[in-house]
Amino acid sequence: MRGSLRSPIRMFNYIGSFSVPNASSQQPPFLERTVDCLNLKYSLHLSNSSPNVINHLPSFHAQGWKDRWAVASEWKPASDLGEWVHTAGKWHADPEDKGIQTGTDARFYGISAKMSKPFNSSDGKDIVIQYSVKHEQDIDCGGAYIKLLPGGDTFDSLKFGGDSPYGVMFGPDICGSSKRTHVILHSDTKDDNLLINKDIPCEKDKFSHLYTLVVRPDNTFEVFVDNKSVRKGKLEDEFNFLVDKEIKDPDQSKPADWVDAQKIPDPTDVKPEGYDNLSAEIPDPDAAKPEDWDDEDDGEWEPPMIDNPDYKGPWSPTMIDNPDYKGPWVHPVIANPDYSYDEKMHAVCANGCSHVGFELWQVKAGTIFDDILITDSLEEAQKFAEDTFFKKKDAEKKMYSDQQAPPDDEDDEASMMGGMEDDGENDDDDFDMDGFADEF
């Protein structure tokens, strides 16, 4: 059997850890089957007592990733495309636990892989997308999102790029102060890709983080980062899948005699006689001509000007409450005849998604992707995360911390220098100047 196990076993696609993680555990009696997924051979251990539980035990050659992933070499000119690097990174738990890393600054990146079986979200199952991201480069501007792609046998992996159709775009995107986790879902009804209305934050540090998206057939969704729920809700509340339930009644308009002026001029207020003759400034009545002022030498003296206390600006009548005020007019609404609830909002891959891929731009390269899983079971994805991501994250941080610490030889040298300074101070205290003079 290729790609999927039918009921009672859930369907899944294990796209890749790009390496061989260490995994071992005691298993109950099991039926072992081998599944070929993207030319990866791995075993599914199915407990006879618990047939719905699937434990992924990946086991494939580390260098085989190029046989399963196709670089989009025809998407852009070669000079615009960056190189993918097969590496565990500078800090890791196991040097053989490798992912693929963006390797060239200021470049586009496109790469995709065919899943062993297309995922058709019209089948009434959850869709779970999960993968890990590590920004080793202290990323300043660049994407790190994954796409779930339709196309089947007609999918052109060499030309896969930003204009290629997709069912889901999910994952972190960082540029300057903008740091968000994209969730973009395709709507067949609108023939459009819909961005979540309110941004979800993402991680920006230099360590691996696990991103998980669940879209459920009850038209709800949930996003996890490092297995912690960070956003969940209804698709119709968080995305613009549906038109408004109500619209303004096109047959209604504000009555011509509607009074919406809250204030009116006081009809009893009259402009004072002679107000228009007032000047904004007047000569300072308290100013006096200096005693040493010489009209012949200094010219005719004029007092300085000051604000006229009687001038209040252009005259306008006092405003009073309008006795005829009716308040703001509210346009009546009616049920939108174009509204209908879409039971298939969740069906982002209604005709099947056959590939996954990364289509990115990064100013500063260095992001590593790994532990990619497409499945219909959140429980399965979380178990897979325990066997992969969570087994390496602490050791990865420790290695990074060790790298930041000064080398032992520097510590020894500093200690030695400190000892020399101490010895010098003691020598000065014990130095016999009399003896020194006697010898010479």
Summarize the structure.
This protein is of the alpha+beta class and 440 residues long.
Layout of SSEs?
Elements: E1 12-16, E2 30-37, E3 40-47, E4 54-58, H1 65-68, E5 69-71, E6 84-87, E7 99-102, E8 107-119, E9 127-135, E10 141-143, E11 146-149, E12 168-175, E13 178-187, E14 192-195, E15 208-216, E16 220-225, E17 228-234, H2 235-238, E18 246-248, E19 263-265, E20 281-283, H3 295-298, E21 305-307, E22 319-321, E23 333-335, E24 353-362, E25 367-375, H4 378-387, H5 389-404, H6 408-430, H7 433-439
Antiparallel strand pairs: 1-25, 2-3, 3-4, 5-8, 6-7, 7-25, 8-24, 9-15, 9-25, 10-12, 11-12, 11-24, 12-13, 13-14, 15-16, 16-17, 18-23, 19-22, 20-21
Q: What top-tier CATH class of the domain at 12-244 and 344-401 fits best? A: Mainly Beta
| Gyration radius, in Å | 37 Å
What is the mean pLDDT? Answer: 83
Distance between the termini: 99 Å
What is the helical fraction, as a range of percent?
Answer: 10-25%
Question: How much of the sequence is in beta strands?
Answer: 25-35%
